[in-house]
Amino acid sequence: MILCLTHSNDLYTIDIVMKRLKELGKEAYRMNSDLFSHQLSFDYSLSERKNIVHVQIDGHSIHADAVEAVWYRKLWQAEIPDELDDDFKEIYFQEYYTMRNIFFESLGDVPWFNPMAKDHEISNNKFGQLSVAAQNDIEIPKSLFTNNQEKVRAFFYEGCNKQMIAKLHGTLSRSMSGNASFFPTTQITEPNLEGLATLVYCPMIFQEMIPKAYELRIIYVDGEFFTGKINAGQSERGKTDWRIATDIHFKWESYNLPDPVATSLTKMMQQMGLFFGAIDMIRHQDGRYIFLEVNPQGEWGMLQRDLGYPIGETIAEKLVSKLS
């Protein structure tokens, strides 16, 4: 059985992958990570001869030794009972997350797409991402990670020539459509420099603002690329972040990456230890390709939906190929 690890609100993409897995003759089970809670039961037992790790969820029995591989799509916070007293919530999450991790670790000898620890390591270190990209001859923007307002001020004038953007390291929410609440990439102007005192409470990433011809969402699936081009430059709101370009209508276009760019990105992903990732790049107005980041759990459904790319099918096929 192939375990597809996601969450209850995941739509569209999960169904594509599971459908293809079944077409390939593999049993696939969707486990919603938020339901690893009071919504299921589990029992882990040990003896001198054998360890048994068993989960019962929605009438389905999962034994760890029956799992052949894991597609790690998403990991969400566990559901919590409405009636649980606030005083018990901390211990509730502590113990359920510990038990959930024991279950995941019991699957450590089977292929994961992506390996969970590597996925989290890369997601939580954009500084490291930029460093690995540069090591593989991929251009990156000048960047500053800081809570120091004086460093930001100097970077604004000396490093960015007054053309600078700011963004959070993480995200507040994730959405295939890009219309959920989140903190967008924001241009910083001189008047903004006077309001940096609060930076000490929320460190941020500052980067030179790249004059862009267009943006690329590049889906990497174990050596294969599916790339969408989007040009939100005509939008006043979308000049820094296409996800907030609600003042114009735009659409995804198919795009072929130049071979040298694809080769460098492949080397980067292999060095990071990722089989899958959603890579964001900017095409500079002078023609250069600038790497922004890679999200190991990034969204790709809009590219399959709008451009007909077989991304979900490729994920399933690549995962099954690792079983042989």
Summed up:
The protein is of the alpha+beta class and 324 residues long. Helix content is 27%, strand content 26%.
Task: Provide tags for this entry.
Rossmann fold; Dna Ligase, domain 1; 16 strands
Any overview of this molecule?
Pfam families: ATPgraspMvdD (PF21068), RimK (PF08443). InterPro entries: ATP-grasp_RimK-type, MvdD-like_ATPgrasp. One of its GO terms (molecular function) is ribosomal S6-glutamic acid ligase activity. The structure is a single chain. The chain is of the alpha+beta class and 324 residues long. The protein folds into 3 domains: 2-110, Rossmann fold (3-Layer(aba) Sandwich); 116-141 and 210-308, ATP-grasp fold, B domain (D-amino Acid Aminotransferase, Chain A, domain 1), CATH 3.30.470; 142-208, Dna Ligase, domain 1 (2-Layer Sandwich), CATH 3.30.1490. It contains 8 helices and 16 strands. It has helices at residues 13-23, 89-105, 116-123, 126-135, 149-159, 259-272, 301-307, 311-321, and strands spanning 2-6, 28-32, 41-46, 51-57, 60-63, 69-72, 112-113, 143-146, 164-167, 186-188, 204-208, 212-221, 224-230, 253-255, 276-284, 289-295. Strand 1, helix 1 and strand 2 (28-32) form a beta-alpha-beta unit. The chain is globular.
